[in-house]
Amino acid sequence: MTSPSFKPLSSSTGSITLDFLRVRELASVPTIPQLHTRWYSPLDFVSIRRTPEPPAFVPKDVERRVYDVGRDSELVGTIVMGSLDTGRRALRPQPSMDWNDPLNWTGWQKYRTYLILCLFSFLAEANASKFVLATPLLEKEFEKSPMVVGYLTCFNLLALGVANLFWVPLMRLFGKRPTLLLALPVFVAANVWSAKTHHFYQLLASSVLSGFASAVAEATVAAVVTDLFFVHERGAKLMVFHFALSCGSFLGPLISAYTIEYSTWRVGCESLAIVAGALWIIAALSFQETTYRNRDVYAPVSSYGSRTTFAGKLSLLKGYDNHRDILPVFCYCIKMILYPSVLWTGLLVATFSGWNAIVQLKSYRYFSVSPYNHDTPLLGLFSISGFIGSVLAIPIGGKLIDILSNRFTTSHHGTREPEYRLYAFIIPAIIGPMGVLLFSFTIAEKRPWIQAAVGHSMEGFGLTAISNIAVTYIVDTYVEYAAEALTTVFVSKGAIGAVVVLYGDTWLRNSGEKQGFGQMVGVQYFLCLWTIVFLLWGKKIRAFTVRYGPVNRVEHS
Prior knowledge:
By secondary structure, the chain is an all-alpha fold. It has helices at about 25, 70-75, 105-130, 135-140, 145-150, 150-160, 165-175, 175-195, 200-215, 220-230, 235-260, 265-285, 310-315, 325-335, 340-365, 375-380, 385-410, 425-445, 450-475, 480-510, 515-545, 550-555; strands spanning about 10, 15, 40, 45-50, 80, 415.
């Protein structure tokens, strides 16, 4: 095969300018006829329909100095490309020549698999809020106080977070497909149990069980994204997941409101069970295992077999790893909290999600009494404002962070840093907390409800955008441990959400509406200001983290 010719490296005043973006020139190079996959350069946004075969050599390992920040940072997020990294070789992670490599799947295969999991994420968030608007009815039916009825939502959120410590190790051992196909029937059974029981503590147990099962749709999603998509498109793809979470959080109460108004709260549980059951059938036939081990980017296409058959795609054993133990993975999930960026992201996402829960709970209580006197459907319709904010966050928190990261990579001559994504933080970091403040002034001074709706929309915008930016940052940093890192995030989110549901109203009552919400906004801005720390010293912090924790255990063993 004739190899493409490259222009020589030009040098001036001792510096070297790399010419590694000559993607269009590669389009005319003789190609492998078996592979006609569409490839995208992460730096030039150029599509290449034909792919040259990689060179048949393995680069030499360079001895790593223990205290070299540059080399250490390459273990945790920094990507450095040279003059020969063009076309498919500029993609990260670099795909092999195997048709069955998830990075080589067609767009339909990738999105079909990913969207099934995102739909489960939507159901998980809708399931968490299914009893909120039904609280008055549940108080009368079971003769319980509002605090006790709040346990239904509180412990569901807690189980939704903590259960990641169970599902992520299970996913690492058995794979994504069997884990999903196991969790969905449990979710269905739990909601059927909720719909049929007439005892409060059975209802509480079923609520906890449904939260436990739906945790599969949280931390494991990051591992699927890193299996399917390249780093230059990761922000936009993770935004689909966070938008699904926001849809469940904002549209779930809307659906619940109309269900309660025109039927009973039990029908809502039955509806979740029916949709989840249908999703299980779709997943059983369409959700493919994304785990791919021992990727060899230098092996020729002739060394691989044919495509996996349909029956092979339905296998439950493809993702099984007999060399992995559950206990070490569980320990990794715990130890990830020792990494500063993971801890910061966990607190940030948990805080914004928790304050969103307070805003929703207070809106239902305040707008149902004088001077507003909204009925249940109108209370549900209020959530549309938060949904509008999350829609507006899609380009800012998704595609924009990919564009910024790609542009900065080009301007830095092929060096990609995870911190490039954090520059998009400024817009949602300002708008989101201000929305909480506007909402608080509205309910404290009994202003028109439309002002509270605008505030809720601003808050929903900040929640969706900031969550995706921060999560994408740590996924880029600890890509091999994305699910373990997000376990810390969602455990924090579940714990703070549970506390907020139980004691948020007491906090605001003791502090006063304006003062209490002002304290919340202060916490949000304090956490957002840490973005500056990671922009300035994030690379050094990342380089230091290779000396301990899961990254050190694997990379230096």
